[in-house]
Amino acid sequence: MPRIALFPGSFDPVTVGHVDIVKRSAPLFEKIVIGVGINSTKQTMFSLEQRIKWLQETFADLPKVEVHSYEGLTVDFCKKCNAQYILRGLRTSTDFQFEKAIAQMNQLLQNEIETVFILSSPQYSPVSSTIVRDIIRHGGDVKQFLPSTVIPKL
Ligand code: ADP
Description:
- The protein is an alpha/beta fold and about 150 residues long.
- Helices cover about 35% and strands about 20% of the residues.
- Bound molecules: adenosine-5'-diphosphate.
């Protein structure tokens, strides 16, 4: 059975940290589905279409990566794409505390789906979409935090 991982997130926008996680975990799986979660209660800076387009352009050279959006529970979307694994990145102990609860709740919901954590590379651990958005809002230069495919215009 091919090993399929779902990498869920908001990707608002995709950063070099996300790219690092996908590239480093690519050898572990036959397919990685990047799932852009649609959360109606969460206001995003970039439209769903824009975030998907950037992800597709960023991973255009990795044929095993697919990009989709989804609504609803992550474990339900895993079933839809036949993913046996959920992929998440860990930067800090705060990420770990948060991710641990979600992974364990997901396991209670669907015990055959395993969450796999990849530690961020040291140079990328301070990079977050939230801080990137803040820098953009204040007119700063975010080039070094984003893949070259992403040029944010507001
Ligand atoms: P969410 O809204 O679900 O947190 P994000 O798009 O912010 O979605 O993040 C998606 C995943 O990528 C999460 O597992 C997050 O921890 C991970 N991630 C984000 N930035 C980095 C980074 N710099 N290094 C490693 N993992 C990261």
